[in-house]
Amino acid sequence: MISKIYIETYGCQMNFADTEIVMGILKNKGYEVAKSIEEANVILLNTCSIRDNAEQRIYGRLSNLKNLKSQKPDLLLGILGCMAERLRKDLIEEKKIVDLVVGPDEYRRLPEYLDVAYSGDKGIGVRLSRTETYDDIEPYRENGLSAWISVMRGCDKFCTFCVVPFTRGRERSRSLNSVVQEIQRLSERGFREVTLLGQNVNSYSDGENDFADLLQACAKVDRKIRIRFTTSHPQDLSDKLLFTIAENPNICNYIHLPVQSGSNRILELMNRTYSIEHYLNLIDKARKIIPDVSFSTDIIAGFPTETWEDHFATLEVMKQVRYDGAYMFKYSPREGTKAYKMGDDVPDDVKTKRLQEIIDLQQSISYQKNQELIGKEEIVLVEGFSRKSDEFFSGRTDTNKVVIFPVEEKISIGDYIKVKINKATSATLFGEFVDFYYYLEEDSLKCI
Ligand code: 5AD
Ligand code: SF4
Known about the structure:
The chain has 3 domains: 4-125, Methylthiotransferase, N-terminal domain (Rossmann fold, 3-Layer(aba) Sandwich), CATH 3.40.50.12160; 146-371, tm_1862 like domain (pyruvate-formate lyase- activating enzyme, Alpha-Beta Horseshoe); 377-447, CATH 2.40.50.140. The longest helix has 25 residues, at 348-372. Strands 2-1-3-4-5-6 form a 6-stranded parallel sheet, sandwiched between helices. Helices cover 35% and strands 22% of the residues. It has helices at 13-28, 52-71, 83-94, 110-118, 164-167, 176-188, 211-221, 239-247, 264-269, 276-289, 308-321, 348-372, 442-447; strands spanning 4-9, 32-33, 42-47, 76-81, 100-102, 123-125, 146-150, 152-153, 172-173, 193-197, 226-230, 254-256, 294-301, 325-330, 377-385, 392-397, 402-406, 416-424, 428-436. With 448 residues, the protein is α/β, with parallel strands linked by helices. It has 13 helices and 19 strands. The relative contact order is 0.08.
């Protein structure tokens, strides 16, 4: 019997990209993708440890799946991803729910661990590697328009709140050539957008090329493919990278640049290695070099010892930068990190209040910024019908905003078009087709 695998993915985009790598590895060994959980012989959860609520969700899901397993005794249940190393004892020994636990650097050996689990033992592989990049593995992807490509793994920054350096290990990068070849294959399959992923993409290095070189090479493969990337660390965002974005029309003018806090005292306790002055200068410089650039950020509310003054400093920075979007979180202590030892002295109701203020402020900034786009033209990749009606298409701008516009016969999914914006909420833009759009070759751009 052919084993059918069903993978549920939680957490960040890196995990979604890893799931495609895992499916690539398993398909090479003859496994098939299960279309639904009911037809699966193996269920794998690709897990996230970044905050406690992410882990609690997985525990909740596992207790659901326990029922399924009692009805179907041959079913194998496995944990992949960031929870593997941290919680293997708990998951396998104490809870006895799962048959295999495989961490992010051991996916190549997943077929072996599955064999171990089939023979009735527990398949456990949680070692981290200094070299594994899965460079040679072709991820399994359904046809589509957008693809994630992980270009580096791990993180060496050791922000004091973050568990990633412990769950995903040291930084290491794929070769530039392998990434370029992957984009070439995606281009042949009709993909129109790729997002280069890494916990800290700006420290990409394959020994010869830095991240700006990689972006440049990726952008040249097919000008009909637009390139996104995430996540950038404010310490490593070089001028060369900013110029590379400015010079290549198909590199999105959009930078996800987590600030985390607006207070220098908190930034220092977080080991973020930059001051807020450095951060704001960087934003100014990027806006000069790339005139239409927009920014999104990550913010943590209620880091240990955070006062109301520190919190107000965060709100101030948000007003100054006017982010297009933000991912906003309550601080969650993670065992093993430096911040864990600092205690968790901001009470939960205070964290909730600060987080709500941050969310409200961002919502009003997003609303204002979107209102300012009314009457302007945006370049949009047509992605499909809108969720609410098939009389409307939905797509996203360069700066990752969702745009809804009426279906017209001449427009096809996968086209780049110019849309004139005529209405906006804080989350969505509405508009109408103006013209088709073609990203220009670099040389012709210079002639303009
Ligand atoms: N608590 C809350 N948020 C966290 N993040 C990382 N670790 C924690 C934590 N312990 C947030 C940071 C990071 C994003 C991916 O998740 O803002 O940039
Ligand atoms: Fe975590 Fe900091 Fe690395 Fe981001 S840069 S993954 S927040 S340690």
